[in-house]
Amino acid sequence: MFDGLISRTPIYTRTLDVFGYELRFCSGEALHSGVRDDLPQWGECLVRASHAVKLHEITGESRALIRLPPPLLHVCDDIRWPREKIVLAVPAPAMSDQAVERVVWHLAKEGYTIALHNPSRDLVEVKRDADFVSICALDANSPNVLKAPLTPGIGPRRPDLLVRELETSQQYDHFRGLGFDYYEGAFFARPRLIQSCEIPANRLAVLHLIARMQNPDVDIHEVEELVSRDLTLSYKLLRLINAAFFGMPKRVESIRRAVLVLGLQRIKNWATVILVNAIDFRPRELLTMAMVRARTCELLAQDLGREPVEPYYIAGLFSLLDAIMDAPMAQILERLGLAENLDRALLDGTGPVGEVLSSVLMFERGEGSEAPCRSFSQASVPSQAYLEAIRWASEAARQIQSAPS
Q: How far is CA 321 from CA 188, 203, 207, 325, 346, in A?
């Protein structure tokens, strides 16, 4: 069993589809003690993860990008994940060492895709000197960042370009204009139109429905009426419930029956997910991220004995509503009218719910050693919860997004 933490950050294509995920690792000892891992522990954690967890359970059919400093390159021989699915990002300055370059060249021959991290030389020279390099990865604030658009057609083939640590829409627009191929950063999980004063009418209508669904006083009759009034919502909800994902022994034909079988809160939550999915937003991965957060919050709250767990689930699910709606979180919460503990959790990460949500966000960024929650029943709980949430959310998203509109 793997007791450390594997976190993932999406890497997007120019069309904002998922190219892959950057993976980060934290040992179970670091999660429990709050002390950061040193390099040897980090390398050992990566190898143990590859022996205990299948890569597709973390990344699906997408690629995995792993940043490795030169002292850890030797662990690649012990990684059990499919090499054709792994991008190894190596610090570019290390390639001036011929011994390191020979090791990287060997890893490329073994099937790994090689990315140079923050190369300081001209991209044409990088291609000429090291044609085993497939990707050049630049941090958005790196002093080596490109200042002018790329000239197409230089050489037989230029490496693909990835920009990391995008924080603002201005940075994203700049690097898109430069012709970059892949994009990664916190920017995608934030509202782009943060200065907007008004939420568009179509999104306000969705928020109104979500608010009614999450009202603690709503009963089975009102939920049935709300769902049945929207034929698309009703169809997609019943289709989802009857999918193999739920493992129903008998087909459910009505919303009332669905409530009786699964419970009112679960139906409200799934209806909310379908409503969010109906919004026109990019990247679509945001919904999967929100469901991963929701499920992880729920599982951690269960382990910590914090009942009821529903507020924890909702906090995770709604934690990306500002990015999905392109509106400030405070403005969205005014429309939703949630309980005060949820407002506090979503606005500033305070209170019991906020403590768990903040921990999940740190797990997501690979900063598990700094998470406020530590009193789990076992050291492996955060890792197990996060991996289970990825599996659960990926399958749920597949079912929801495959339904006809």
A: 12, 11, 10, 6, 10
- State both tokens at 359: 């921990």
Q: Are 28 and 380 in contact (CB under 8 A)?
A: yes
- The domain defined by 201-401 folds into Hypothetical protein af1432 (1.10.3210)
Average pLDDT over residues 356-361: 96
Q: Residues 280, 283, 286, 289: is their CA dihedral positive or negative?
A: positive
- Note whether 289 and 320 are within 8 A (CB): yes
pTM listed for this prediction? 0.91
Q: Rounded to whole angstroms, how far apart are CA atoms 113 and 367?
A: 26
One-letter amino acid of 265:
Q
Q: Which residues of 141-159 are buried (b: 16+ CB within 10 A; e: fewer)?
A: ebeeebeeeeeeeeeeebb
CATH pick for 5-189 out of 3.30.360.10, 3.20.20.450, 1.20.1740.10, 3.40.50.2000 = 3.20.20.450
> CA end-to-end span of the chain, whole Å?
41
Domain locations in the chain? 5-189, 201-401
Q: What is the pLDDT of residues 299-336, one digit of tens each?
A: 999 999 999 999 999 999 999 999 999 999 999 999 99
Asked if pLDDT for residue 404 goes beyond 70, the answer is no
Give the pLDDT band (50/70/90) at residue 391: very high
pLDDT at 153: 45
pLDDT tens digit sequence for 146-198 = 665 555 444 456 789 999 999 999 999 999 998 899 999 999 999 986 555 67
Same fold, 5-189 and 201-401: no
User: What's phi and psi for 305, nearest 5 deg?
Assistant: 70, 30
Instruction: Answer for the pair 349, 357: CB distance below 8 angstroms, yes or no.
Output: yes
User: Which string of DSSP letters, residue by residue, matches 149-203?
Assistant: PPPTT-SS-PPEEEEE---SHHHHHHHHHTT-SEE-SGGGGS-TTTT-SS--HHH
The answer to whether 141 touches 165, Cβ cutoff 8 Å, is: yes
